[in-house]
Amino acid sequence: MPRTPEQYEAMRLATRTKIQTAAMRLFVRQGYGSTNVQHIADQAGISTGLLYRHYSTKEQLFEELVQFAMTGLEALIAKFQTSDEPVEELARFADEVYHDLSAGDDFGHLLLLMTQSFFSTETDDRKEALRQLNTNLLQATAALIHQGQRQGKLREGNAFEMAQYFFASIQGLAMMKVMLEGEFSMPSRSLLTIIFDKEGETL
């Protein structure tokens, strides 16, 4: 029985996901410059010909992955900016981070991919876009923290500094997971938000 258009589309998306996952792992673990199309195809378990049916160049694939990561951060910023439940919003995000870093590699790889893009790009526009995106994220997080402080639910202190510490911790954990691999042990969930906790209370 011939496959339906829906089945072909599902197969296409599954292959594309395999390519993206393989490329993320290789870009992060051995560097963009040291990764070629054959490496990605081998990691994905497909032929280079099939890979080229989805991406014409390694650069196109890298760009799509970085853009995907940036779009995800933009969505997070928008969520933080519109939330009227600062404590619950931070707790939900910390839960997601904990689960993603505990159970898989994709989230950490996306974070490190953006860092790699910032330091490897020769395009000033891309550097500025990444810098502005991170600034917007820190500002949105700081505003959320400040809102929680006004409600008396979060520890007092410089909200922007707390936001920087929070995301530096997440970035550092993602890096340690890549470096240590099987030796990595995810810290307890409560440590992710300890900077926000009031005495005797945890997020």
UniProtKB/TrEMBL annotation:
Keywords: DNA-binding, Transcription, Transcription regulation. Residues 13-73 form the HTH tetR-type domain. InterPro entries: Homeodomain-like_sf, HTH-type_TetR-like_transc_reg, HTH_TetR, Tet_transcr_reg_TetR-rel_C_sf. Coiled coil: none annotated. Transmembrane segments: none annotated. Residues 36-55 bind DNA. GO terms for molecular function: DNA-binding transcription factor activity; transcription cis-regulatory region binding. It holds the Pfam family TetR_N. PROSITE patterns: HTH_TETR_2 (PS50977). PANTHER family: HTH-TYPE TRANSCRIPTIONAL REGULATOR BETI (PTHR30055:SF234), HTH-TYPE TRANSCRIPTIONAL REGULATOR RUTR (PTHR30055). This is TetR family transcriptional regulator. It comes from Paenibacillus campinasensis.
